[in-house]
Design brief:
This protein has 382 residues and is of the alpha+beta class. The protein is built from eight helices and 17 strands. The strands form five sheets. A six-stranded antiparallel beta barrel has the order 1-6-4-3-7-8. Strands 9-10-12 form a three-stranded mixed sheet, with helices on one face.
Length: 382
């Protein structure tokens, strides 16, 4: 049975009642009497003590602990908070006089002030152009406690400017391939979820849960699934998602599927988000396994809803959110997932203003194909 913490008003009433009971024949103390003031002050102190005990109780278990106490519980299971990840780009276009160079560490500014640096010296070729790698500069945690890694993600075509002019080099620089691998510091809720998973799932030396937990330790990775023998005997497939890391990709990883760059086997090496995860898994996985890290792909589901052709924008937005929630929760790229028609119908019916609707498409349960996650397509109202 839960314990009900007394309110400040209840504590004041208890104190005054106790004072009255001990002072025989005196009656009720006046509002501003010494006894009333002392009783009120004591009630305030007791209320603070109850608050502290309440805080202690929350920190005593990992499912409600916060801040450094949650980190302590997590450390007992060798789980640490994922740091911010700086976005990178391997195809940034510099222009200028042939033969000129841009030194390593040169600072580039985006229009909003976010900065990047060159990873190595870039030489301007005979055609007056040069291609170089840049890395986002993570902001000071005091200025941005999230780490600001997600803010560094930038679409292709964005123009940067040199922080300090270089003779013979144009001040404008163009990002030719999108930066999508920046990620913020892990949120406390996500950190707590991984901590609880670590307590619930004892390491088994490479079972399904182990691979998923290892993948989730990588910055920016929010969901992971394991598929056994994805390429035949001795192989393991790990599908990943980066929800919230990039609005341009709707959470789908950016890179190519494959195995770790550290793997000596002559297989296709993963790049981008898949490569980061594959390299993180390599020292943890069983030595006999060949692990392929793969990006999920979108399985678009279109909807046709009859009976509410005049639904306003507020109602349609709420229906979209309800559909997205069902598809997210049902997402399972292992080939055994299914979106139940009844779940969709129930979610839509819970939206205000949908009385009398009929869901005509889809008209049955939706099987999720291997490697795919369901996403909402068009929603037509008739």
């Amino acid at each position: 049975m839960p314990y009900n913490r007394p309110t400040l008003t209840e504590l004041r009433a208890r104190n005054l009642a106790a004072i009255e009971s001990e002072l025989k024949g005196v009656g009720t103390p006046l509002r501003f009497s010494n006894l009333t003031i002392l009783g009120t002050a004591d009630a305030g102190l007791a209320y603070l003590h109850y608050g502290y005990l309440d805080w202690i109780a929350k920190q005593s278990v990992p499912w409600s602990a916060t801040d450094e106490n949650l980190a302590g519980w997590a450390a007992l299971k060798s789980v640490t908070k994922k740091p911010a990840n700086a976005g990178t780009n391997n195809a940034t276009l510099f222009t200028g006089t042939p033969g000129k160079s841009i030194p390593s560490g040169t600072v580039l500014n985006r229009g909003d002030g976010y900065q990047y640096t060159t990873d190595a010296e870039v030489d301007i070729g005979p055609a007056g152009t040069g291609i170089g790698n840049i890395t986002a500069v993570l902001p000071d945690p005091n200025d941005d406690p999230t780490g600001g890694g997600d803010a560094g993600n930038t679409p292709a075509g964005t123009q940067l400017t040199l922080n300090v002019s270089i003779s013979g080099v144009d001040s404008t620089v163009t990002i030719t391939t999108a930066i999508t691998d920046g990620a913020d510091i892990e949120t406390e809720d996500a950190f707590r979820s991984r901590t609880l998973l670590a307590y619930q799932n004892t390491p088994q030396g490479g079972n399904d849960d182990d691979y998923e937990a290892w993948a989730l330790e990588v910055s920016g990775i929010t969901r992971a699934w394991t598929v056994r023998r994805i390429m035949g005997a001795g192989t393991v497939g790990v599908y990943i998602m980066t929800d919230g890391a990039s609005t341009s990709t709707n959470g789908f990883p950016t890179g190519t599927d494959g195995v770790s760059s550290l793997e000596k086997w002559g297989a296709v090496k993963a790049t981008g988000d898949q490569g980061r995860v594959a390299d993180a898994l390599y020292p943890l996985q069983p030595v006999t396994a060949l692990v392929y890290v793969c990006a999920c792909t979108a399985q678009t589901v279109d909807f046709v809803i009859n009976g509410i052709p005049d639904a306003d924008t507020t109602t349609t937005a709420a229906i979209n959110d309800a559909i997205d929630t069902v598809l997210f929760e049902a997402g399972d790229p292992t080939g055994s997932g299914k979106v139940y028609f009844s779940d969709l119908y129930l979610a839509i019916s819970g939206v205000a203003g949908t009385s009398g609707f009929i869901l005509t498409e889809p008209s049955a349960n939706i099987d999720i194909s291997l490697g795919q996650l369901p996403v909402r397509g068009k929603v037509d109202y008739t």
